[in-house]
Design a protein that fits this description.
8-stranded parallel β-barrel, 12 strands, binds ligand FNR, alpha/beta
Length: about 375
């Protein structure tokens, strides 16, 4: 039996996702990020005016180390949202990804709901978005549609399996990703959609030739919760919370015994500027937010979203000053205390958390003999 959805199913799904993402988003609930604390040192030694919050992603300089991550496009309502997101992104100098472009690849009349991003944010770093099931030619079209600077490929097996009309066959994804990487003229970033990339997955993606990954971990938008609401019997609620939280993904892939050899972006459950700084300190080169951005826009309006993005930039600078980090690489030498469930899971994955707690020390701590011994 084919699970390929019809065009109208795809379109109404977009609007349903938006409504459910708003309704089900675990607003500011405690999560793995709360297991990550910084050691406070009282002589930061830097001046806020000298702090550089910018970062380098895929060879490009981003003035702001967070971005608006993939959400939507393709219907009248979502085109309006993309226009507002793009204007806010342009105003605050942040990069922006669009939602899955499949609907526009199948029905070119819907492409304008995506193109609006480039029109409203002509100078922004824009990421296109497809799944691994598109052909290499379609991936090229997706990039051209937006004049995209990079292409995201989303991995969403957990979502598809809970979606009544979703895919059931996940063979050949690695090969399909390699073929897309070879065909498109821009760097490819493979991302999850809120269930987290394991180190093993990232290693396979390195072999497939991708330029970067976005771990897109759990803790924020939960597509099992969203798709379960769309099932007649809502019978998969016990799977809500599936996957690895973003902080754990970063610890496993960057602080473990075998750090992965490619740039890692972080997203999933990012609630505030402290989560941005926590992610950067755990090694992410930039940090994405979707649910929080969507909620701010829909509940408070475009002007509030603009203000929020500027506030996040200011606060990231404030937090970096407090931590004595003049730039993002220096954040990676701050002392980080990981506790609770995240610590237990990270240790099982081989992460040396004691080392992380002492990174700012010039050499590993030694026990010095007490005078008179
Ligand atoms: C998403 N996300 C998403 N991701 C993707 O790669 N393609 C897509 O089309 C969508 N669509 C989408 C719609 C809506 C309404 C939301 C809220 C999210 C997933 C998103 O990019 C991100 O990985 C997760 O939402 C986790 O981040 P947050 O929401 O916890 O910040």
């Amino acid at each position: 039996m084919s699970h390929e959805p019809t065009a109208s199913q795809r379109v109404s799904r977009k609007d349903e996702h938006l409504e459910l993402a708003m309704r089900l988003h675990g607003q500011d609930r405690a999560g793995a990020f709360d297991d990550v604390a910084f050691v406070h040192h009282s002589l930061p030694g830097v001046s806020a005016g000298q702090v550089d919050i910018g970062t380098t992603v895929l060879g490009s300089r981003w003035e702001v180390p967070f971005y608006i991550n993939a959400m939507t496009g393709g219907t009248r309502a979502t085109a309006r949202i993309n226009a507002d997101l793009a204007e806010a992104a342009a105003d605050a100098g942040v990069a922006i990804a669009c939602g899955s472009q499949h609907v526009a690849l199948r029905d070119p009349e819907r492409a304008d709901g995506f193109r609006v991003i480039r029109r409203r944010a002509p100078g922004a770093f824009v990421l296109g978005n497809v799944g691994p099931t598109v052909s290499p030619q379609e991936a090229v079209q997706a990039v051209e549609m937006l004049e995209a600077n990079a292409l995201q490929i989303h991995l969403n097996a957990a979502q598809e399996l809970v979606m009544p009309e979703g895919d059931r066959d996940f063979t050949g994804w690695s090969e399909a990703i390699s073929a897309i990487v070879a065909a498109v003229p821009v760097p490819v970033v493979v991302k999850e959609v809120g269930f987290g990339l394991s180190r093993r997955t990232i290693e396979a993606l390195v072999r497939a030739g991708v330029a970067a990954v976005d771990v897109a971990g759990s803790g924020g938008t939960d597509f099992i919760a969203i798709e379960n609401e769309r099932r007649a019997r809502r019978d998969l609620s016990y799977l809500i919370g599936w996957g690895q939280p973003t902080a754990l993904c970063l610890l496993e892939s960057l602080a473990g015994p075998k750090p992965v050899g490619l740039p890692v972006l972080a997203s999933g459950g990012v609630r505030n500027p402290l989560d941005v700084v926590r992610s950067l300190a755990l090694g992410a080169c930039a940090v994405g937010a979707s649910g929080h951005v969507l909620r701010t826009l829909v509940k408070e309006g475009p002007e509030a979203l603009r203000r929020e993005l500027h506030t996040w930039s200011d606060h990231v600078r404030t937090l970096m000053t407090l931590l004595g980090a003049a730039d993002v690489p220096q954040l990676r030498r701050t002392d980080v205390l990981v506790t609770g469930r995240t610590a237990e899971q990270a240790r099982l994955l081989g992460v040396d958390l004691e080392r992380l707690a002492h990174r700012s020390e010039p050499s590993p701590p030694t026990i010095s003999p007490v005078k008179g011994d």
